[in-house]
Amino acid sequence: MEHNTIVDPDIEEYCRLMSTAPSPYCDAIYRYTMEKMEESQMLVGPLEAGFLCMLMKMIGALRVLEIGCFTGYSALAMAERLPRGGKVITIDYDEKAAAVARKFWSKSPRGHAIELHVGTALDILPGLQGPFDLVFIDADKNNYVPYLELTLPMLSDSGVVIADNTLWYGKVIDPDTNDPDALAIRAFNEYVSDRKDLEAVIVPMRDGMTLIRPLK
């Protein structure tokens, strides 16, 4: 099951075809997840992963923090783009999905650059040591605000936070929606917009991605 997207599917497919292809290791995760996993729509697709990796290269990221790993596609994609000595630290509460991720990472020559923590992110984050050059938030929507508050102090001087699904099927602009995730994302977007110590931009890619960085 594919994740719904606010972008025309034909345009998204064209963009995918015209972009750099994922590695065989990432492609194997993608195919397995789509064929075998429930809630496969949670997977970060090739376009989003490509966007993350391009941004990583542009800012010279060495340490990455990911909240929400699922079957490990984006974590491996980012690990493949890190320089020697770089690391992706990723968190997920789902042991079944984590086992799938570990299985595929073990086949990749870059799997060793990923450190996985299984448990509740709000419990794990205070014990992590920064700085991180990129933080990717793609987990339970009702906790996006505390995830942001916990990770902003962990950013390096040039660090960026990226929050995923920030348009939530387009429901964030529906005044009549009762979708709890849409309401949580709308509150998060308003929180970020209201903070004068941050700059942010929402990119309408797939289901929306927000780039956030502190104003210096």
Tell me what you see in this structure.
The protein is α/β, with parallel strands linked by helices and 216 residues long. It has a domain at 9-152: Rossmann fold (3-Layer(aba) Sandwich). Helix content is 39%, strand content 20%. The protein has helices spanning 9-18, 24-36, 46-59, 73-81, 95-105, 121-124, 144-151, 180-194, and strands at 63-67, 87-92, 114-118, 132-137, 155-164, 198-203, 209-214. It has a seven-stranded mixed beta sheet, with helices on both faces. A hairpin with a 5-residue loop joins β6 and β7 (209-214). The longest helix has 15 residues, at 180-194. It is globular. The N and C termini lie far apart (42 Å). The mean pLDDT is 95.
CATH superfamily of the domain at 9-152: Vaccinia Virus protein VP39
Main sheet properties = 7 strands, mixed
Sequence stretches where pLDDT stays below 50 over 5 or more residues: none
Which CATH architecture of the domain at 9-152?
3-Layer(aba) Sandwich
Structural class based on helices, strands and sheet pairing: alpha/beta
Count of distinct strands = 7
Describe the strand arrangement of the main beta sheet, using strand numbers.
3-2-1-4-5-7-6
Return Rg in Å. Answer: 16 Å
The CATH class name of the domain at 9-152 reads Alpha Beta
Q: What is the first-to-last residue Cα distance?
A: 42 Å
CATH topology category name of the domain at 9-152? Rossmann fold
Mean pLDDT comes to: 95
Helix content: 25-40%
Strand-and-helix sequence, N→C?
HHHEHEHEHEHEHEE
**Morphology call:** globular
H/I helix tally? 8
Strand % is: 15-25%
